[in-house]
Amino acid sequence: MIQVGVLMLPVLGCSTQSISGDLGGSTPVVVEAVYTVIPSDSGVQYRVLMADFPDVCSRLEAHQGAVQEAQNQLLIAESEEEFIAGAESMEAADAILPETFWLGRLELNSDSSGSSLVGERFAGSAANADVIDGFAVSFSHHRGYTDWSTCSQAWFNDPGGVDICEYRWESWVSHGGEARVLEYVASDELGLEFDAPFRDVEVPSGVVHEEVGSIQGRIWAQSCDGLSSGLGE
Fold first, then answer.
1. CA-based nearest residue to 117, from 170, 189, 51
2. Per residue in 30-43, pLDDT tens?
3. How many other CB atoms are found less than 10 A from the CB of residue 65?
4. Is the pLDDT of residue 168 over 50?
5. At what angle do helices 148-157 and 80-94 cross, to 10 degrees?
6. Cα separation values, 78 from 57, 89, 91, 139, 231, Å
């Protein structure tokens, strides 16, 4: 059960990231966070990306661009050589980020904007929701680089066959919970806190399994407009 009282922290004067709780034996680590604002038909979406490495904005921007280029290579590949070249580009894109790291993603959907956003509370969406209504958080723990060349070679030899990729990360997604905006300065900083139970997510199918624990977080994110779509899409 979510304890609303947990969300009664001092609002101003602190920019330290704080994560506590447990995900079946693992606790996410966050040292830096960034956010971007995405207008939508139903209001405004605020997307926060959290990581345990520095220079999050520039590194995630570079990674996002490199992944998009690599995926384009794979889509237009007409030979095995071109396909493997696209896989090698994927590996080069991954190398922009550390070999092992934590990455979190939080989304808020609101009708409010500007200073009116401060103090607003959000109910958490279901872990398997098709559309995020309110807020949702996911975390992934990357434990090594994926061997995209080997995966691609196997797929090329047997298109549509069994996926033999060794995906070296684990994922979790929130299920319900509550979030509150602490501070918002347009194009500058977004401060928020959340408290939610989490469920295990199967990689790469995305199937949601049982609840494994809960996380409480207090995050201060800096604006990063270059992250137009975020990581993982």
1. 189
2. 999 999 998 777 67
3. 14
4. yes
5. 150
6. 34, 16, 20, 36, 27
